[in-house]
Amino acid sequence: MSTMIQTTVQMYAVFIKATPEQIWDAITKPEFTSRYFYGSLVDSSFEAGKPYRSWSPDREKLWVDGEVLDSDPPRRLSYTWRALYDEETAAEEPSRVSWEIEPQDGGVSKLTVVHDQLERAPKTAENVAGGWMYILSGLKTLLETGEPLAG
Amino acid sequence: MADDPVFKALADSTRRLLLDRLYERDGRSLTELESDLEMTRFGVMKHLRVLEDAGLVVTRRSGREKLHYLNPVPIRLIHDRWIDKYTEHRVSALADLKRELEETA
Q1: Which class is domain A2-145?
Q2: CB B75, CB B86: distance < 8 Å
């Protein structure tokens, strides 16, 4: 039971010196995601009920397939997540990814990612654990310095 | 965000112990965390607040309870600050090797 709780909800947060609008753009525009999200190109109208997709850098392979659940620019975005880049994760049930952006004092925003509903996606839970940390670190570096993280 | 709150939050053995507990299993309520420690509820709350302000702990509500999660991102950022210099070369060397292998294949 205890390990269940640990793997079914993952939360990551970072403070970024940027406005909520800048962060929203970084999450929703492919010219940004290509620079910190493993080169992937996000593809969605970000309206509830519409598809959320993410493509490989050459646009040949669909890496992530999902559906937008909730979209409230520039504060909140939530969609289902099925990772197709790996056979094992592709075979699992969809999980859910939510982004929350909260403005703080001093031109800083707090960005939180919650990846939950992972009960039927243990391989996905394992697969994304280090990834979100890398992505948030890269997103912060990109917005604050204009340069993607090296490597 | 400056790193100061992160280092200050980490410079206390009780707070490190709280992070250890959350590392073992996160999504814990204050009541659960409190039962592990020889400390008053108020004392645990105060320490959790410092960890939350530093971004090392994030919370979310589940019904009437507030659940606490370990957020490793600030530690990752400290890591990146001093480690990247060395890993960068390794990563770019591997990328160069990959490119060479693919070009000659």
Answers
A1: alpha beta
A2: no
Choose the CATH number for B1-71 among 3.40.190.10, 1.10.10.60, 1.10.10.10, 1.20.120.1200.
1.10.10.10
Most A CBs within 10 Å, among B56, B73, B86, to test the A interface = B73
Each residue's pLDDT tens digit, A23-42 = 999 999 999 999 999 999 99
Size of interface A-B (CB pairs under 8 A): 59
Domain boundaries, chain A: 2-145
Which residues of chain B have a CB within 8 Å of the CB of A110?
Answer: 55
What residue of A is the nearest CA neighbor of B1?
A15
For residue range B40-97, list pLDDT tens digits in order.
999 999 999 999 999 999 999 988 999 999 999 999 888 888 876 666 555 556 666 6
Q: How far apart are alpha carbons A16 and A86 in whole angstroms?
A: 31
Q: What are A54-63's pLDDT values in tens digits?
A: 999 999 999 9
